[in-house]
Amino acid sequence: MQLKDDGSSAKTVKTAACCFMGLSHILYLKDYIKGIFYGLVELAFIACIPFIFGKLSDLVTLPYSQAESRFPVFMLIDGILVLSIIAIFISIYVISVRSANKSYVDYCRTKRFSAQKTSLSENANNAFPLLGMAPCVIMLLVFVVVPLVFSVAVAFTNFGPVDKNGVAHGVANDIDWVGGQNFKELLFSGTTWSKGFARIAIWTLVWAVLSTFTCYFGGLLVAVQLKESGIKLAGIFRFIFILPYAVPSVITMLVWKNMLNGTFGIVNRTLKQVFHIAGPQWLGDAHLAQVMCIVINLWAGFGYFMMLSMGTMTAISQDLFEAAKIDGANNRQILRHITMPLVLYQTMPLIIMSFTHNINNFGIIYFLTGGAPKVADSTTTMAGGTDILVTWIYNLTMTLQRYNYASVIAVLIFVVLAPFAVYQFMNTKAYKEGEV
User: Fold this and answer.
1) What's the pLDDT tens digit per position in 72-108?
2) What is the rounded radius of gyration, in angstroms, for the C-alpha atoms of the chain?
3) Distance (Å, rounded) from C-alpha 335 to C-alpha 321?
4) Which residues contact 82 (CB under 8 A, 6 or more apart)?
5) What is the rounded distance in angstroms from the CA atom of residue 425 to the CA atom of residue 436?
6) Which of 67, 75, 126, 145 is 20 to 30 A away from residue 11, measured at CA?
């Protein structure tokens, strides 16, 4: 068929390109090399349809057969990989249709088809970036996207030590889709699991807020004192205050754990020998242990914000302070109306990052208290009085093998933290200037 160069054949070109990949390139656009390539891609996909259909069928039904070595966990992974392949195929299909439309637009503009040699050179130049990125895209799908999708998919299964009827079974064996049942049990059932989740979620939020703002304002207060007091040995104090942050937290948390031990810890022994009083069980009472987690986190983390605040204050123009003093402002007014607003403006994104970090701050809780002490629901949920959601996920997977509940919690954490990450990204300079 002869194409018209006035644009009236656009529908014909697009229809043929949508019917079969590369068909427009071969029939109408005289771009045989590109058309054959796209056609071979679709033929290869068609040849794999029985295999793809079988994997998708297994993904839907998740049949278990020990005799045939058919395990639902592997079917779930294979199904997600197949879905990724389908997504890649659809992307190539869309590219082929757009390529046909672009070639027809070029034909209408130039009134002639490109020579095969020229077309081959152009296609090679255009394909080079795609071929260079292909290994990265494949690795991204296999090692990032597929595990993430698998983790989300597990939240909608009964992947755990009991089946959907509550009967014990092999963890990797009889897995079924249960829809939103796991979310309902953790959020709205009113059972021990639901109450335990509510307790841990509230404590996680309290922990994230208090640990963030105590470290930030503690570091800011120390930075202001060192800067405004004019201490000659300010450098030495900065070095001392940054040490807790510089030392690996696993070491400092284990040291504090031993120091706060109610029986042989150095803190209680000192109280008994010097003041003749019996110290409390610092990590033995749930509420007191939570307070100590926040205090120890303040000790370990305020140095970072101290250095950050001092660097920000150093960057503030001295002309502002001199102008304020000329206008009669005292040190308190300068701090309130000049220093604090500018420091907060510069460091607000880091406060948000610190908040999201503390929600997932596994190390402080795990190495300081291990989630202890036990509370009323600990026997069922394996969550102690100081456990946050991320440490509870660890206990659910490593001890109880409740992978479905752990996946639900991970999904909920993502839902909470994703807006903060998006906000942080959208406020970066590169995004605002259109570079990403």
Assistant:
1) 888 999 999 999 999 999 999 999 999 899 888 888 8
2) 31
3) 9
4) 52, 55, 56, 59
5) 10
6) 126
Sign of CA dihedral 24, 29, 33, 34: negative
- The torsion angles phi and psi of 362, rounded to 5 degrees, stand at -70, -40
Q: What DSSP letter does each residue of 187-255 carry, written as one string? A: HTS-SHHHHHHHHHHHHHHHHHHHHHHHHHHHHHHHHHHHHHS--TTHHHHHHHHHHHHHS-HHHHHHH
pLDDT attached to residue 435 = 53
As a whole number of angstroms, the distance between CA 367 and CA 200 comes to 18
SS3 35: helix
Cβ(45)–Cβ(29) below 8 Å: no
Query: Distance (Å, rounded) from C-alpha 229 to C-alpha 234?
Result: 9
**What is residue 263's DSSP assignment?**
T
Dist CA 283 CA 368 (whole Å): 9
Residue corresponding to tokens 């390539």 = 37
What is the separation, in whole angstroms, between the first and last Cα of the chain?
Answer: 43
Provide DSSP, 340-353.
HHHHHHHHHHHHHH
Q: What is the pLDDT of residues 189-218, one digit of tens each?
A: 899 999 999 999 999 999 999 999 999 999
Q: Is the preceding omega at residue 373 within 30 degrees of 0, hence cis?
A: yes
DSSP state, 162? B
Cα angle 359-361-363, degrees, rounded to a multiple of 5: 160
| φ and ψ at residue 188, rounded to 5 degrees | -130, 5
3-state helix, strand, coil in the chain (%, to 5): 75, 0, 25
In sign, the C-alpha dihedral spanning 24, 28, 33, 34 is negative
Tell me if residue 163 falls in helix, strand or coil: coil
CB 66 within 8 A of CB 117: no
C-alpha distances in angstroms, 337 versus 147, 178, 401?
Answer: 49, 56, 54
Tell me the β-bridge partners of 177: 157
Neighbours of 297 (CB within 10 A): 23
User: In degrees rounded to 5, what are phi and psi of residue 248?
Assistant: -55, 135
pLDDT tens, residue by residue, 363-422:
999 999 999 999 999 999 999 999 999 999 999 999 888 999 999 999 999 998 888 878
